[in-house]
Please model this.
Amino acid sequence: MPFVITLVDWVIQILIYLIVIASLLTWFRPNERNPLVRLLHTVVDPVLHPIRAILPSTMGMDFSPMVAILILWFLQRLLSRGLS
Model:
């Protein structure tokens, strides 16, 4: 069982990193046809889309990545506390 929890912890951590990378890429407007950018959006958008549907953008700023990271961080802490 600890292997599964460790694996989920790693997946959550990687997803947090991908959300940060996707957020930083919005500043540079990369080519949407780039396979790496498409892969990044394929992984990150399903996580951010439900949050964007609930949370409106304020003054042109999208806070959904920050909310998603906070939720993922909370889940990660919940899993680590479940072990002890």
About this structure: Helices lie at 2-25, 35-54, 64-83. The chain has a mean pLDDT of 89.
